[in-house]
């Protein structure tokens, strides 16, 4: 992942391209493909294959718990972050007298379930200023009616990394009844998780963790198990699913385990188990040490070319994402694609993402293409 040899060995599809779009879709290492083949082999065994299926789920739970700093009973899985947030809404069962705080840098999955509730709570928007979220703007939104503060540790939109400690302290001081939910999708597998005291952690599996679609990781510390137990129907999350009284009552497992309401997405969890063990084997700190200087070089290069990053220049905490807006974004994106420089383009925004499999040559190639794009002849 971090040398020419391991990069070509583990990520052969990166040969000949500059892939800077991990914040949307990762390139999984070959071991993930092997894990999917193992799933296929077990699936071909029919019912006997479930021994391998459930063993893979528990192995994935083990490595997920290790990397989140939780126990295996505090970690579970569902199919995607949207499902996780709707199950969180089910657990909280908020109403008109309650309030939820969301941010304008959050992904829609974490911000919209509260708007779609049958009896919706009041939704308070914590607005960013010049690309960052300031705690002084959050404090007036907090009170005793606040039941949830939903944030992303790293914003999918512009790469802003939330200042965790002041956030945590403000919520605990001004909103004593509130839980803090953290989307770690754009951080997990790329940067150290510095969100101690979070009440629930949610992450998709197909980005920086190097897995595939169809999975979502949920981490709920045991102190919140009773409060964050879903009210959803199903069977896999029930302790009496096949007992004689199953049509009279549904006894739900508590906390994170209640979020796995149906048959696990086994293929996604085979893949995630392999992906997380690969990332853990390299080491998130090693990945950051390799990739962070590349992010700084990319950001400095953008500024030198006249592009304005969407996160404040004073922010010295690199993450994987650098983004900028431009009136000629469509032309710029087309030129990048033609040069086999893969980035995200949406609504005037160009987003570049740097992971452990990226190189300085990737950054220099992207900047060289952007320099050509910035010249008047384009």
What are the main properties of this structure?
three-stranded antiparallel sheet, seven-stranded mixed sheet, 2 domains, Aspartate Aminotransferase, domain 1
CATH architecture of the largest domain: 3-Layer(aba) Sandwich
Distance between the termini: 35 Å
Radius of gyration: 22 Å
Helix/strand/pairing category: alpha/beta
The low-pLDDT segments are: none
What sort of overall outline do the alpha carbons produce when their principal axes are compared?
A: globular
Mean pLDDT: 95
Total helix count? Answer: 11
Q: Strand order, biggest sheet?
A: 2-8-7-6-5-3-4
Following the backbone from N to C, one meets helices and strands in this order, namely HEHHEHEHEHEHEEEHHEHEEEH
Concise description?
This protein has helices spanning 4-10, 30-43, 50-68, 81-92, 108-111, 135-138, 164-174, 266-282, 284-304, 329-338, 360-374, and strands spanning 18-19, 75-78, 99-103, 122-126, 146-152, 179-183, 200-204, 216-219, 321-325, 341-342, 344-346, 349-353. With 378 residues, the protein is α/β, with parallel strands linked by helices.
């Amino acid at each position: 992942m971090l040398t020419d040899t391991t990069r070509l060995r583990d990520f052969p599809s990166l040969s000949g391209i500059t892939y800077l779009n991990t914040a949307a879709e990762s390139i999984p290492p070959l071991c993930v493909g092997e894990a999917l083949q193992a799933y296929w082999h077990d699936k071909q065994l029919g019912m006997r294959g479930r021994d391998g299926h459930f063993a893979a789920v528990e192995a994935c739970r083990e490595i997920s718990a290790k990397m989140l700093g939780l126990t295996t009973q505090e970690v579970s899985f569902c199919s995607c972050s949207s499902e996780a947030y709707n199950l969180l809404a089910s657990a909280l069962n908020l109403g008109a007298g309650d309030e939820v705080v969301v941010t304008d840098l959050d992904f829609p999955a974490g911000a919209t379930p509260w708007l779609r509730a049958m009896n919706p709570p009041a939704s308070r928007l914590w607005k960013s200023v010049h690309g960052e979220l300031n705690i002084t703007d959050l404090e007036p939104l907090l009170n005793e009616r606040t039941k949830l503060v939903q944030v992303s540790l790293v914003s999918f939109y512009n790469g802003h990394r939330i200042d965790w400690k002041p956030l945590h302290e403000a919520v605990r001081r001004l909103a004593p009844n509130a839980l803090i939910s953290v989307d770690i999708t754009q951080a997990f597998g790329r940067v150290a998780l510095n969100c101690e005291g979070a009440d629930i952690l949610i992450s998709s599996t197909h980005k920086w963790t190097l897995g595939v679609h169809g999975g979502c990781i949920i981490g709920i510390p045991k102190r919140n198990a009773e409060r964050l137990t879903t009210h959803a129907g199903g069977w896999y999350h029930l302790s009496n699913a096949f007992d004689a009284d199953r049509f009279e009552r549904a006894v739900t497992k508590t906390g994170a385990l209640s979020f796995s309401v149906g048959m696990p997405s086994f293929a996604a969890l085979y893949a995630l188990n392999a992906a997380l063990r690969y990332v853990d084997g390299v080491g998130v700190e090693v990945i950051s040490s390799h990739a962070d200087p590349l992010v700084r070089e990319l950001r400095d290069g953008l500024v030198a070319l006249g592009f304005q990053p969407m996160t404040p220049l004073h922010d010295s905490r690199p993450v994987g994402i650098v983004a900028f807006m431009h009136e000629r974004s469509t032309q710029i994106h087309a030129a990048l694609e033609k040069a086999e420089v893969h980035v995200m383009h949406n609504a005037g925004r160009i987003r570049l993402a740097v992971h452990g499999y990226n190189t300085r040559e990737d950054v220099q190639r992207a900047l060289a293409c952007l320099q050509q794009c910035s010249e008047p002849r384009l």
